[in-house]
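seq as requested:
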Amino acid sequence: MLRKASGIEFYESGSGQPIVFLHGVGSTYESFRYQFGKISGRLIAVNIPGYGKSDNLELYNFDTIYEALRTFIEALGLKDFSIVGHSMGGMLAIDYACREISNIKKLCLIGTTPYFGGRSKEFEEEFLRVRLEPIKSGMKMKELAKISSKKLTGPKVSNEVIRKIEKQIGSVKPATWEASLRSLVGFNRKEELKLISKPCLIIAGEHDRNAPVATMKKMHNSIPFSTFHEIKDIGHMVHMEAPEVINDILEDFFEEPKNG
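struct tokens:
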């Protein structure tokens, strides 16, 4: 059942150690449905601001999203909790960890990078143009979803997963889509990765064009207590495309030590 706290809509299942799940641009809390009931712990999957019935932000950037998440986390009384972040959600997880590392128990980064863009302004402009021009030209989000879903996945993705991705993207408000994408511009925590002093799990998809394996390996090499997994035959939607593999990795990572 969906609930809401401090303006953030979320789905919660299980009990035990709290694990907060943060989705990416165009996704919703539903992207983690394959993890619910498969991983031990108190799983809390949020709709980040502007998604689902979570409140919109007048100014949409990493500072304001952080404040919204911080207030939400305080409202739930979460301390010494873990975060699983995918894509933009992984960037938000990195950002939160850089600000609140003492509050973090473990960190899992899926299909994400510690910075946005390339070496030139042209990259950022082209990135935004490709993703925003169709909407500005009158394309509906449901139409865009059919195009985007194929670009986000690997060669062996199932039709079921494609449909779920399309449903999520199709549900996003155009204004939220644009605000989310624009918020990525300028994000860079690359130099602060060495300060992440908690266990960190990094998972990359072989065919991920948004968060390439090589970039994620460099991130792994920069985070002191990190482990790295590359999952073959899949794209950017790692946790949806190969849930059984991912769930086994996550369960091992989050397993609590046995008493005695």
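Residues 121-136 form the longest helix (16 residues).
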